[in-house]
Amino acid sequence: MTTPPPQGNPFAQGQQPAGQPQAPYPPQGGYPQQPGQPGFPQQATGPYPPVPPQQSGRKPSFKTIKNIVVVAAVAAIAIGGFIASRDDANTAAVGDCMHRGSTNNNDPDLEVVECSDAKAQYVVLAKIEGSYLTQTLASSKCEGQAKDFQYTYTESGDGKDFLLCLKDYSK
How buried is 100 (Cβ within 10 angstroms: 0-12 exposed, 13-18 middle, 19+ buried)? Predict the structure, then answer.
């Protein structure tokens, strides 16, 4: 013969029929976490909050670095060329002062400077558009535009051909 199960309130807590020992139950949620177990963050052991894990940094490739360097070099050359050409003879206007940067007569390297600058050597009396291949033609054109000119400067081949009629600058 078998004995029937004990009857009573199934919701009663802590009450066991007399004579049966109370069995301990495992804690809710399974087993406690082991510190440093892979895949789980480490629990704080001191009064400070835990340090977040470092993100894995991806190193840029050689190709990416090379492309950045090439773009930077091209930009630097373009900016340098623009700055260098801002004060060339082709930007000169009537009344501007000029400085001769070279002793070479074929390429005097004229640049625009402030008239208050100690480097100012010449003043522009006239700027005439067009190509003037001979010194005689340039001089006769300057005589018609600026009677008291002393020097002529012609530039051609850079898109715009022009003639500058210059004289010594005196302060």
Answer: middle
